[in-house]
Amino acid sequence: MKPAPFDYVRPQSVAEASAALAAEGGAKLIAGGQSLGPMLNLRLVQPRLLVDVAGLDALHALEATADALRIGAGITAANIEDQRIDTSAVPLLQKVAAGIAYRAVRNRGTMGGSLAHADPAADWVNLLPALDARYELADAKGTRTVPAADFMTAAFETVLAPDEVLQTIIVPKLSRSARHGYSKISRKTGKFAMAIGIVVSDPDRNVFRALIGATHGKPILIPDAREIFSPAMTLDETRAGALLSEHGVAEPAARQLHLTALRRAAAEAFQT
């Protein structure tokens, strides 16, 4: 298996990367290459130009502000898993990073690459909307900020313009009282998720969010999880099931997998 012929450039800045994307129709960014590499070899994509942004410092920065972490999109899952960058203010980041695929993939796969690829079964695609994250998208003219919940529009589709680069992920810090759970159901460790459930409760910040993921489409975000949980934090399966049906998950076995993942996430979040 070999990719179709392409040209290759290594820009020195995000602005240069954006300019290269704008100048060449059909260009693709590459960083870790964990999704794009196989697609190139199978000729599922045949870009005329690869724009390599793996070495850009702007995509590897981590900044902690008073209320958020600003994570460069080029930071890998292994960086977070090993805490080479300090993401302890949002413990779910390390937990989820450690469960992504296999170590070889985590060594190379970047957070931004996963988000831009927008596979519905991917961990970051589901976790970051549940955390109410925001993304900074940059082009040659400047940046704009998009809520994570609005970034992915459908399976493998996002709001990224052809010349935009996902530069920074902004994740709100959790308070000390926050509780959270993340459950992923796969056929075996390292395989793609069949169902993902996430619960984030942070009373000090008036946050109680839930998310149903790996639905073959955009994640189902519940900004106010009281919609599907009782005051005793018991999942209302009738309401949650209706929500799944509204989003096209009607097959009984699939619905049960998603409900199970959500129940497990809630149990993890609220266990005593």
Observed structural traits:
single chain; Uridine Diphospho-n-acetylenolpyruvylglucosamine Reductase, domain 3; about 270 residues; five-stranded antiparallel beta sheet; four-stranded antiparallel beta sheet; globular; Enolase-like, domain 1; 10 helices
Structure, described:
The chain is an alpha+beta fold. It folds into 3 domains: 7-52, Uridine Diphospho-n-acetylenolpyruvylglucosamine Reductase, domain 2 (2-Layer Sandwich); 57-172, Uridine Diphospho-n-acetylenolpyruvylglucosamine Reductase, domain 3, CATH 3.30.465.10; 179-270, CO dehydrogenase flavoprotein, C-terminal domain (Enolase-like, domain 1). It is built from 10 helices and 14 strands. The chain has a 5-stranded antiparallel β-sheet with strand order 4-5-10-6-7. The protein has a 4-stranded antiparallel β-sheet with strand order 11-12-13-14. Helix 9 crosses helix 10 (252-270). The chain is globular and about 55 Å long.
| Morphology | globular
The CATH architecture term of the largest domain is 2-Layer Sandwich
User: Would you list the SSEs in sequence order as H and E?
Assistant: EHEHEEEHHHHHEEHEEEEEEEHH
> What is the CATH class designation of the largest domain?
Alpha Beta
Our Rg estimate from Cα atoms comes to 19 Å
Give unreliable regions as ranges.
none
